[in-house]
Amino acid sequence: MTDQTDQLKPMPEDWQRALAVVAHPDDLEYGCAAAVAGWTDAGREITYLLATRGEAGIDTLEPEKCGPLREQEQRASAAVVGVTDVEFLDHRDGVIEYGIPLRREIAAAIRRHRPELVITLNHRDTWGGVLWNTPDHRAVGRATLDAAADAGNRWIFPELVEQGLQPWDGVRWVAVAGSSSPTHAVDATAGLERSVRSLLAHRTYIEVLTDEEPEAYCRDFLTGYAQEVAPRFGGRPAVPFELFTR
What we know:
The protein is α/β, with parallel strands linked by helices.
């Protein structure tokens, strides 16, 4: 029996706009898209911001061909779960650096879109203490956490004000997907099937990643992930997040 103290809380629902910031195409689809589908069903506005186009992700495909293809697949993938606003920052895949320029770019996006909720991916060194996380994930996750505060301070990046981007101190939470220390979750039941189709839209990448039949791979991965969380969320398949309150 699961310890009741180990139960995950429901994610807050008193918000209208969210900005999801990740490094690569498919980062949001590996587990987070079912939550996004439920949110857009409820009329909430979600924008995706990707630091790269994932052009270094397929060994057999040159970056100049891979990048445009993965961007196209990402836009199609987002549309499956009701997201039509997808932006890219043009960093080079695999060599994103944490630092002031990245924080500034993400803070600018937060000021443009004015989200109450910001979503990002695991920024820690490892996945569950076992698998080493990538430099891109760590850099973008850390920069997003910092930029959520930067966006509200007019004396940090004052050049953004000169560009017409006034401070936005309305970010109330940053939700980290893929965390080994989740605190909250979203019921994945209604969005799970669409999350499978959303991940499957990255077919070029999936077909290189696995020898399994692509749809079976996507379904097994996402269903298994959501069911793993169920004992901590009232028996319901769920998407977990580590929630930071600002």
